[in-house]
Amino acid sequence: MTSKVAILVSGSGTNMERLIRAFQGADDVDICLVLCNKKGAGAIEKAAKLGVRTEVVPHTGFSSRSEFDAHLVERLRLAEIDWICLAGFMRVLTPEFIDAFPNRILNIHPSLLPAFPGLHAMRQALEYGVNVSGCTVHLVTHEMDSGPIVAQAVVDVEVGETESSLAKKIQAEEHRVYPEALARVIRSSWHLEGRVFREA
Fold first, then answer.
1. In CATH, what is the architecture of 1-101?
2. pTM score of the predicted model
3. Cα Rg for the chain, rounded, in angstroms?
4. Is 109 a catalytic residue?
């Protein structure tokens, strides 16, 4: 059985591109739709070149977050989407959106959650003085950056590390671990025990 996947994106789409490339030609994973909320975002051209249908839905055309999210849910249901990957989608999802796809939305965050949720995670990490940082792929729940963890990757934080240099390290790991996490939830036998993701 093929799982149909949509990617939601707002920016350049580097994680989006890695996800698409990782599953090109796969029989069981079909990344078939990219939804972007910003006209002119770099992700649009990248997705088109990779042969994935892209829809641009500017959030500014809606009177509220709820109205915008309801429209996205409609588009995703029409496409019969099974899984959603957030890849630099700079919008906070409403509870109604999350409830429409329970335990079927993945997000990637540039810290080792539960440490440093929310905005400016790398800046938070450097200000705290950590020796390691990284990224986390997790299921999306109502509470921001707090869903069950699917996968993590660790990077060292060097003396004199800057936000920019740390971002490059973490992004390289994001490109590796996000496709692995998507493959894990689709291809493995897994379940949730409370808030903990476990494989059988």
1. 3-Layer(aba) Sandwich (3.40)
2. 0.95
3. 17
4. yes
